[in-house]
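Re: weekly structure request thread

Next one in the queue (241 aa):
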Amino acid sequence: MATDTTDTDVLPATAILGRNLTHGMLDTLGRAIVTGRYENRPFPTEAEIAKTHGVSRSVTREAVKMLTAKGLVSARPRQGTVVQPASSWNLFDTDVLRWTLERKFSVELLRHFNQLRVAIEPEAAALAARFGDAADEAAIRNGLAQMEAGEAGTTDPLEADIAFHMAILRASKNPFYAQFQSVVSTALRTSIRFTNRIKGRSANIPDHAAVADAIIARDPAAARIAMTRIIGDVLTLIGDD
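Done, posted below.
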């Protein structure tokens, strides 16, 4: 009988180790950049990084290439690798977003994120009401059920809340909206924790149920309004000016 294999099952041990080292080096350097460690000093050369962290030049080179792709650094002739200003960072990259959120809690960044959500999720909910299928409806219902279970303490309410919103993005059947899943999921972890602390409770179940009900009833306008209400409440809590 055939068995499933993962990427790590078919890769040689040296390749797995190299990939893990590269991503570990990426995480170390990315966090250092985002936390401002190189604000007042030059970014080290590949040779210096390799020596300091005890990794090969090839691992270092690959990690720096990934940082470049994320907009954190750039290579300039006769200047070497230079850290880019925060305005150049790719916040749609989940690593960059995660590092930025973990760097220093920022209400302003959460406000910007939820302003982005207002432009995406209400319309995704409306599209889900139009194009979602039975499997999507089941996923949305399950997300809501898990949120209710979270209220009772039998599941993780944070993960359930995120799953609910991800199910709606997928149900939109729009590949561009679906691409926002990883970004929304990453930032929601911080946003939900913050707003729950302010409210002293987890998500408003009736408000989320209103979104689910409208989608299942095939009512795009009601779905849009209900989702806008949820995010609008978040912006009010954060203090959107």
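The beta strands are 73-76, 80-83. Confidence is low (pLDDT under 50) at residues 1-18.
Next request, please.
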